Amino acid sequence: EIVLTQSPGTLSLSPGERATLSCRASQSVSSSYLAWYQQKPGQAPRLLIYGASSRATGIPDRFSGSGSGTDFTLTISRLEPEDFAVYYCQQYGSSPPGFGQGTKVEIK
Amino acid sequence: EVQLVESGGGLVQPGGSLRLSCAASGFTFSDHYMDWVRQAPGKGLEWVGRTRNKANSYTTEYAASVKGRFTISRDDSKNSLYLQMNSLKTEDTAVYYCARVLTTVGGGPFDYWGQGTLVTVSS
């Protein structure tokens, strides 16, 4: 089973700043089958990025994903007020398709 | 418009059973793998299990934490997904989401989620 570790646990930033979130896998994620989700309080998660770097439908281009193997990054180029939320990475290249523990992006 | 609507959550005693449903619309349900994901209060996301599509013989997979207690099924004629939960434990308390796998061939990320249904296991 692949274990995903996200860092940092909490990121305190101001609107307009750049956010860099990390997701590290315990073993290589096959074919870069790595996704990122955003979740706001009381809402279901929303798919942002899949295949490590492909934006899902309707996702603004300030969200970008990169990485391969065991190290992946989600970057939000300029934080908008609606971007403050919890972000999860997920690998779906092997079973079980597990999630990281999440990174909370909060307003500084 | 793709919609997933869960129902069936509620309060159940430890050792009890509950059946969740997920009604799908706006897409060809039979083409997609469908999964259940849960989230305990204040915690992260935990994958529960999956049912593959007809082309893959409706095979299922489960997380180790629920294997042998939970059963996933689907009825393509009703565009519905189900989660039968038996021998419930307090640690099964969570919001349960049904989620559509993006691709119709093999596994993939979850591109649509329901709003979730809360299951509380308590005496």
Summarize the structure in words.
The complex is a heterodimer of chains A (about 110) and B (about 120). In chain A, about 0% of the residues lie in helices and about 45% in strands. Chain A is globular. In chain A, strand 4 (about 35-40) and strand 5 (about 45-50) form a beta hairpin. In chain A, the strands form 2 sheets. A 6-stranded mixed β-sheet of chain A has the order 2-10-9-4-5-6, with no helix packed on it. Chain A has no helices and 10 strands. With about 110 residues, chain A is mostly beta strands. With about 120 residues, chain B is mainly β. Chain B has strands at about 5, 10, 20-25, 35-40, 45-50, 60, 70-75, 80-85, 95-100, 110-115, 115-120. In chain B, the strands form 2 sheets. In chain B, strands 2, 4, 5, 6, 9, 10 and 11 form a 7-stranded mixed β-sheet that branches. Chain B is globular. Chain B starts with a strand and ends with a strand. Chains A and B meet through strand 4 and strand 5 of A and strand 5 and strand 10 of B.
SSE inventory with pairings:
The complex is a heterodimer of chains A (108) and B (123).
Chain A: E1 4-7, E2 10-13, E3 19-25, E4 34-39, E5 46-50, E6 54-55, E7 63-68, E8 71-76, E9 86-91, E10 103-107
Parallel strand pairs in A: 2-10
Antiparallel strand pairs in A: 1-3, 3-8, 4-5, 4-9, 5-6, 7-8, 9-10
Chain B: E1 3-7, E2 10-12, E3 18-25, E4 34-39, E5 45-51, E6 60-62, E7 70-75, E8 80-85, E9 94-101, E10 110-113, E11 117-121
Parallel strand pairs in B: 2-11
Antiparallel strand pairs in B: 1-3, 3-8, 4-5, 4-9, 5-6, 7-8, 9-10, 9-11
